[in-house]
Specification:
This protein is α+β, with helices and mostly antiparallel strands. The protein has two domains: about 140 residues, Triple-stranded beta-helix; about 80 residues, no CATH class. Helices cover about 30% and strands about 25% of the residues. The protein contains six helices and eleven strands. Strand 5 and strand 6 form a beta hairpin.
Length: about 260
Amino acid sequence: MFSNQFPYFKKGNILKKSMLENIRDYPRDFINLYFQDYSDGILTGCSLEVKGNYININRGLIKFKDRMYMLNEVSKVDYEDSSNEMILKVKFLDSKEENDFEIYESNIYLDTGQKLEESEFELGRFKFRKGAQLRDNYNQFTDFAIEYNTINLINVKYSSVSEPSIHPLISKMFAHQVLDNIEDSSLDISFAMQCLSNKVVNRKLIMAYLVKKLGLEDKAYTNMEIYRFLRRILKLISGNISNGTQARNRPNKIIVD
């Protein structure tokens, strides 16, 4: 489980080895300062792997309500055969005092439904059909939105400056497919390079690109809407290449459901 422990140094307390090890192993001040301008979301790690009937959540770091939570070892969750949409959640618990520590813990579990409670964070979601193999790999951009038997990462929030952004796997897959298909568009190439050179692409940069490319209204959009816009751009690019034409300087309008 994700956790965050603070040693208590109080007058009259016995200084214990575990308290000193906590300070040694967790440079709290550095991490807090380094990520103080970052939004809530995954900071690093927390990748998902399917192993048999289990989903492995790999080591990582999450920022939630301005607090850092570290997963120090792989956590496993058993998934059931179900046609209902399952969400892999982290539920952050209220703090508690235990011996010489203030402890912030969490539970990782699968849950049905579409909504997250205020104390919950999404790691992924899927619909699973009995007899199939749950996938955790993506060969093309459209794979991220496959309805059944594939872990959907579109709604997962990655920490970025000011506000959360989309999953790096999505932005990098988009960039690779743009560079594989584009002939001559400085806007598309420049954005693709940004996707490949940055671990997490800032949401404002993504929106600036979408507004310029598609003529969208400059307002807040969900991760799912952003994914659909990017998928539309890939269709436009691949269509223009096959037709021998370019879409430069041509405004495009799309309707959001």
